[in-house]
Amino acid sequence: MRTRVLCRRRRSPLCRRSDVVEEWTALAVAVLLCVVAPLVGVAAARWAHGEARATAEEQRADRHRVRAEVVERPARVRPSAQAGGRHVFRADVRWTEPGEGPRTAVARVPANARPGDVVHVWFDSRGRDVPPPVDDASVWQYGLGMGAGAAGGTAAVVLLAHRAVRGAAMRRRLAEWERGWARTGPEWTHRGV
């Protein structure tokens, strides 16, 4: 149906080539926004979800949770990139490993922890204090966020390109009208005679 409309307008003496280009561009933009942008978003979401899930599984295999007792009052440590830019509270904690006996280490604890409180802390295979592994909700959130960002970015690029084509078509149309008026204007205004 759209093709018939375009063909009918092409036969009109008022329809210029720039009008036809602009109409076909609008049709292409509609297809890109309705089909391509969502497909790009879905592909990016699937890729990001797979990457995040692999990272989460790697963290779950490497990290283990320990139920420990806080030995001293927590001290606030400067913000770090690993903590997401937030202040981290650390304190000495003590726990008993099965078959190894009691152990102590400095670990992340809640800000309101007091000596004697029992907290859950996470350690990696090397015995370093680490944040808990990424949970499934965060994996999904990351994947959906990346997909939405990719779809939005694709739509923005398509719309910017459409705006550029419309601007070029308008400049060309105005130049054509100016040339046409330069030819017919003197006949109507009787200034050139």
Structure notes:
This protein is of the alpha+beta class and 193 residues long. The chain is built from three helices and six strands, in the order ααββββββα. It has helices spanning 2-10, 17-62, 136-189, and strands at 64-70, 75-77, 88-97, 101-108, 118-123, 129-130. Strands 1, 2, 3, 4, 5 and 6 form a six-stranded antiparallel β-sheet that branches. Helix 2 (17-62) packs antiparallel against helix 3. The model is unreliable at 1-7 (pLDDT under 50).
In short:
With 193 residues, this protein is of the alpha+beta class.
Topology (SSEs and partners):
Blueprint: H1 2-10, H2 17-62, E1 64-70, E2 75-77, E3 88-97, E4 101-108, E5 118-123, E6 129-130, H3 136-189
Antiparallel strand pairs: 1-3, 1-5, 2-3, 3-4, 5-6
Taken in chain order, the helices and strands follow as: HHEEEEEEH
Structural class: alpha+beta
DSSP helix count?
A: 3
Distance separating the two termini = 48 Å
Tally of extended strands? Answer: 6
- What Rg, in angstroms, do the CA atoms define? 33 Å
Percent range for β-strand residues: 15-25%
Largest sheet: 6 strands, antiparallel
Q: Any idea what the shape is?
A: rod-shaped
Please tell me the overall pLDDT: 84
- Low-confidence spans: 1-7
Helix percentage: 55-70%
